[in-house]
Amino acid sequence: MSDSVDRTVDGADRVERALRTLIEERDRLRQENDALKAGRGEPIAVVAMACRYPGGVSSPEDLWDVLRGGVDVVDEFPADRGWRDLYDPDPDAVGRSYVRHGGFLTDVADFDADFFGISPREALAVDPQQRLLLETSWELFERAGIVPAGVRGADIGVFAGVSSSEYGSRFLEGSKNELEGYLLHGSALSVASGRLAYELGLTGPAVSVDTACSSSLVAMHLAVQSLRSGECSLALAGGVSVMSTPAIFVEFSRQRGLSADGRCKSFADSADGTGWAEGVGMLLLERLSDARRNGHPVLAVVRGSAVNQDGASNGLTAPNGLAQEKVIRQALANAGVAAREVDMVEAHGTGTALGDPIEAGALLATYGQERAAGRPLWLGSMKSNIGHAQAAAGVAGLIKAVMAMRQGFLPKTLHVQEPSRHVDWSSGTVELLVEGREWTSADGPRRAGVSSFGVSGTNAHVILEEEPPPEQTDERGPGPAVAGGLTPWVVSGKDAAALERQAGKLRDFADAEPGADVADVGWSLVSSRSGFDHRAVVLGRGRDELRRGLASLSDGVESAGVVRGVAGDLGGVVFMFPGQGSQWVGMGRQLYDTFPVFASTLDECAAALAEWVDWSLLDVVRGVAGAPSLDRVDVVQPALFSVMVSMAALWRSWGVEPAAVVGHSQGEMAAAHVCGALSLRDAARIVALRSKALVDLIGHGGMASVAESADFVAAHLAPWNDRVSVAVVNGPRSVVVSGEPDALDEFVEKMKAEGAQARRISVDYASHSNQVTRVRDQVIGQLSDVRPKASALPFYSTLYGETIDTTELNGDYWYNNLREKVLFESSVRRLVDDGFRVFIEMSPHPVLTVPVQEMVEEVDDAVVLSSSRRGRGEVEAVVGSLAQLHVRGGVVDWDAVFGARRRGGSADVRLPAAALLAELLAHSGGSGGALEGAPRGR
């Protein structure tokens, strides 16, 4: 009976567990479904834009100046491409063009191949369209505040519209074929996106799109879908078009599809055909929630998009009004926006007598209906300014629409004396922008539609919306500039010339943007720019000093305000802590007043010392009346210890972490604390009590320095036997002796007589000599219960000249440290043998840097730095040394230097793009090989 009951209970449990599992799985699937639905509808943020278009346009801001000013940038055929004279006013002339104007890029053959690591020969074979995509995409990341090197390996997608592959064929026509082997990849449309992904190290989808004139908007549509599906985290989307040959002018001349003057008269009654142009435009896209979380700028959002095909219409290349209506409605549905809520449409508007009326009819049938009184749909086309940029036309319209929303202005459409009579403008509420006008906001956000219709029959439409208001955050405001207004501007380049060019661009930027906060500029430079091996840090208190430093750097002239160097692989950093001798009245005051980390650490040292001394450390540092003098040994040593420990904390706060420590005499106490072997209480106790013990030695001895080798000094000490001995060996020609005062004076005079540099040191006791035995019991007795710990960092003992287990740093050690010879040279040589190359002295004035420099002068990439210097501003000194470390390749956390600034906030400054070398690629073979010239600065 009980078995039956047990089986029943067990079965019920299994059923319950199964039901619970089913419910959990149902909830999980529901959550996934909700997430997918949310993702499909989430707005996509435009976080950056970059472009090149006719009229010398090299940025979205330049493009806006052209549009806002109503400028026509159509010009004559370029003279630098080797095109033969094709002009013939007769439209029936075979092989000729009745048009000799268009919208052309300047310096289209320029490319900084070395910047992208491409050999000169391969670079020549690379289609200019691919080169432009590379340059604008690099700039795109920089404009978004993203370091391009930081996204290598990321699932970032590339969607590039490109529809011409005629560049490579030009070289095959010639007799010289030295570019064979490069031409396939150089001109293949598939490689346009693949090269971007390869050069930037992006691992998301890479798709080249060729739907002719709609290519860039189709690429945008695919990018939005990819982001919403979670296929990629960021996406580059846009298009490029460069006319390497005039073939398209010849072809459309036969079709009589060109405007005679090369200008697009969009929706005008005088429209007589299209006018060809070229350009490149790229947008960086990100899910809005991700952009907000990552602190990236949000210029606008893509609410929705759609793509369709004309199908079997009245001709392969003829536009289809019904298909255009449908794609608009699909885009609006995808965006969840009503047609009446869209204020403006940037139209395809090529200026043809057939296409424009069909497009206008579709807009009137969709956007022109049921609109509020006084709120028509405003219609325009920037093709009237620059011409039809083909695969780069749609993205140009997107950039225009984003800029218009941000500027609150609708630019006019040029060349419209009268709207087209072939359009029934009364059939809907649509008005042509024959004049520019302010874009006032309705009840909701500004919205724009952008259309692009390919000659292939593929149509695309995108719905844009102005940037939504940011969520309320508790973000902190900008932190201070570096110490007392001193600001570093960090600049770099792939070579010396590139560094100087970048400095020149930054100087021009500083001139053009006088209102930009210099600290925000400095922070933006370190947070959003790639760091190359050729580096410089320009230091200044205010814009004028910084600008002068940039001018010197760009001109290749030495300047006190510029630290310059070439980065190497430096390896670990050694923090060095000297003994007595680096002190000076006022040391640490400026650092205490300007760096909170230094101040808080010094406060902690003061609290720790207060248990063992009867004077105030802060009064000593601040020079308060009545505070004890640094002439007292029991004051100067604890004070030096505290300043050195605080200096180490300051360096660490800037991301400079020691890989080893070494101390010199009393400096070993600071080293032992910084490496973690001694608590602050124990270290303060040791330095305070031991320095008090030294008071009993005052008046019985002294010390002297000699600029000779240890062997030389030891040999010359024989006449004084035990009265004077070698106390310290700092370096190959830096020795300190210690002993009885009279004997020291005799020895110094002897050395001077023999031509050696020797002098008495301003101390009246004999450390590191047998005189120290007088205080042995006092020192060891007071420190007998010190319990050091094993440290994670190597501690290079100058008592033994090698690394030791820091659990040995007990009372006996600290007595021996005072009694025995200081083997600093041996310790440094061991550090060098162990591979250390960076030595930073943690003291108020350098006393160890000179002997260390002598020991490492034959070692490649060795760097020896001080932290502060007597007689020089403490802030300038330590920040200058930090700059030296950076330019030599050391790790520096510049974000920490600049304080609490937040990416995506007011501290972001839109800096000039990388200063690429405008070097004209040269080729002498092949027809139309007019890529000849010389390097030009840009």
- C-alpha geometry: elongated
Strand order of the biggest β-sheet: 5-4-6-7-1-8-15-14-9-10-12
Distance between the termini: 95 Å
Helix percentage range? 25-40%
Uncertain runs are 474-479, 922-938
- What kind of assembly state do the chains in view correspond to? single chain
**Major sheet characteristics:** 11 strands, mixed
Number of distinct beta strands: 28
How many alpha or pi helices?
31
**Average predicted local confidence, pLDDT:** 89
SS-based class: alpha/beta
- CA radius of gyration: 37 Å
Q: How much β-strand is present in the residues?
A: 15-25%
Structure notes:
The chain is of the alpha/beta class and 938 residues long. The strands form 6 sheets. Strands 5-4-6-7-1-8-15-14-9-10-12 form an 11-stranded mixed β-sheet, with helices on both faces. Helix 11 crosses helix 12 (355-366), helix 15 runs antiparallel to helix 17 (543-554) and helix 21 runs antiparallel to helix 23.
Please render the helix and strand layout as text:
Elements: H1 2-41, E1 44-52, H2 60-68, E2 75-76, E3 101-102, H3 120-125, H4 128-143, E4 156-162, H5 169-172, H6 183-187, H7 189-200, E5 206-209, H8 215-228, E6 234-241, H9 247-254, E7 279-287, H10 288-294, E8 300-309, H11 321-335, E9 344-346, H12 355-366, E10 377-380, H13 383-386, H14 393-407, E11 409-410, E12 430-432, E13 437-438, E14 447-453, E15 458-466, E16 486-493, H15 496-512, H16 518-528, E17 534-541, H17 543-554, E18 562-566, E19 573-577, H18 589-594, H19 596-609, H20 617-622, H21 633-653, E20 658-663, H22 667-674, H23 680-694, E21 702-706, H24 710-716, E22 724-731, E23 734-739, H25 741-753, E24 758-761, H26 776-782, E25 795-797, E26 802-803, H27 811-819, H28 824-833, E27 838-841, H29 849-856, E28 863-865, H30 874-887, H31 894-898
Parallel strand pairs: 4-5, 4-6, 9-10, 9-14, 10-12, 19-20, 19-27, 20-25, 27-28
Antiparallel strand pairs: 1-7, 1-8, 2-3, 6-7, 8-15, 11-13, 14-15, 16-17, 17-18, 21-23, 21-24, 22-23, 25-26
